[in-house]
Automatic annotation (TrEMBL):
Signal peptide: none annotated. It holds the Pfam family Peptidase_M20. The lineage of its organism: Archaea, Methanobacteriati, Methanobacteriota, Stenosarchaea group, Halobacteria. This is Aminobenzoyl-glutamate utilization protein A. One of its GO terms (biological process) is folic acid catabolic process. Keywords: Manganese, Metal-binding. It comes from Halorubrum aquaticum.
Length: 425
């Protein structure tokens, strides 16, 4: 019998940290989760396409994007049965405990890493202590290694408790590319959930602080756009070309000229662009990755539609064709006050919690809002809480790290919240 997860929180988190995998490529990660969940013993474990419909995924990758990640996972000891069940980038899993009559409670944690090269500096604890990422160019720089640890430890604690009802733990892939929340929100496992908890570590809140529920997460849309023009010799016959690079430049300028909206905050950003082939060729192709955000889902739709209009206008003005693809998006969903109050009351009784903040603005985007929205629309309650951690640098940086004191705090807050939902009015 394996040692209880509660006794090896640090060990488990560091194990996940060593082997980060990006969205829709979490093959080894899913295998490790399956092993731990089977060790806990649950009533149902759905893996990959058993957990959701692959057609509901967003930000789906090309087929050849998976091969090296599958092979790396296999070399690290991923189980063949899990690799088969997650083939084609259908990663993640859902675990269910059925404990008779009572409320249905859900917990959502995310599992993917980021394309960032982790620091090798001696003052970076993972490098100093020997659990730095072993995958070049990929790291858990947003704390999802801690989230998975919380999810497993909470599942174990609920299993060992006298909980009555149904507990569903969503181990969601592809959060960083906003791809995995939608399929899990469309799955059969979200149906009938009365109370849903989602959670994040840190986010500039120190160790000991718990935010019981976020407000104002930004609705978001990720966009890929491609301009197709006509190539020509830049010296001999430039007038014969339709310059995709010019279209791209105009599109970027137009995007940043989109008017703000009087109803609330909007954001647009062009984060990546490429164009052309050589200095003496009128560029035939150009490609851009961009995003639109809004304080509400409606404002996100405004920003997205204006972004598309700006790009199409640029394409037309330079004689180019445009492909505009919304790769992924997520809505706004706020935490419910009843569940916020419940989490706050639980957190105040947890050793190590020094400050409880009922609500805080999130200021970013999260595809857990798909699950929250689905639960709320069906009459249930949802909250997205934050368990603070002292992190030496910001999220999504090479030197991000988690204060491991927050691991136990997070488990106790989540476990107490799940077990005490009967107190929610």
């Amino acid at each position: 019998m394996t040692r209880p997860i509660a006794d090896r929180l640090v060990e488990l988190r560091r194990g996940f940290h060593r082997h980060p995998e990006p969205g829709w490529r979490e093959y080894y990660t899913t295998s490790r989760l399956v092993e731990e969940i089977e060790g806990i013993g649950v009533d149902e474990l759905a893996v990959g396409r058993e957990a959701y419909d692959p057609d509901d995924r967003m930000a789906v990758l090309e087929d050849d994007a998976h091969d090296e990640w599958v092979e790396r996972a296999r070399e690290r000891g991923a189980r063949e049965d899990v690799l088969e069940r997650t083939a084609g980038g259908v990663t993640g899993c859902v675990a269910v405990l059925d404990r008779g009559e009572g409320p249905t409670v859900g917990l959502r944690v995310d599992i993917d890493g980021l394309f960032i090269e982790e620091s090798t500096d001696d003052d970076h604890e993972p490098a100093r202590e020997g659990f730095r990422s072993e995958t070049d160019g990929t790291v858990h720089a947003c704390g999802h290694d801690a989230h998975m640890t919380w999810g497993l430890a909470t599942l174990e604690a609920v299993k060992e408790s006298d909980f009555e009802g149904r507990f569903v733990a969503f181990f969601q892939p592809a959060e960083e590319i906003s791809g995995g929340g939608h399929p899990m929100a469309e799955s059969r496992f979200i149906e009938g959930i009365d109370h849903l908890f989602a959670v994040h570590v840190g986010l500039d809140h120190p160790t000991g602080r718990v935010v019981a529920g976020i407000e104002r997460p930004l609705a978001m849309a990720h966009v890929d756009a491609s301009f197709r023009g006509t190539s020509a010799h830049a010296g001999k016959a430039p007038e014969e070309g339709d310059n995709a690079m010019q279209a791209l430049g105009t599109a970027i300028s137009n995007a940043y000229g989109i008017p703000r909206h009087s109803d609330g905050m909007t954001r647009v950003n062009v984060g990546y662009a490429e164009a052309g082939s050589a200095s003496n060729v009128i560029a035939e192709h150009a490609r851009v990755e961009a995003e639109a955000r809004g304080e509400t889902t409606a404002l996100k739709e405004y920003a997205k539609s204006r972004l598309e209009r700006a790009f199409r206008g640029a394409a037309v003005s330079h004689g180019c064709e445009l492909e505009f693809d919304v790769v992924s998006e997520s809505p706004r969903a706020d935490s419910d006050p009843e569940l916020v109050e419940h989490v706050a009351n639980v957190a105040r009784g947890v050793d190590g919690v020094t400050e409880v903040v009922p609500t805080a603005d999130f200021g970013a985007s999260e595809d857990a809002t798909f699950l929250m929205e689905r639960v709320q629309e069906a009459g249930g309650l949802a909250t997205y809480l934050i368990v603070g951690t002292d992190h030496p640098t910001a999220h999504h940086t090479p030197t991000f790290d988690v204060d491991e004191r927050s691991l136990r705090i997070g488990v106790e807050v989540l476990t107490g919240a799940v077990l005490g939902v009967g107190d929610v009015e």
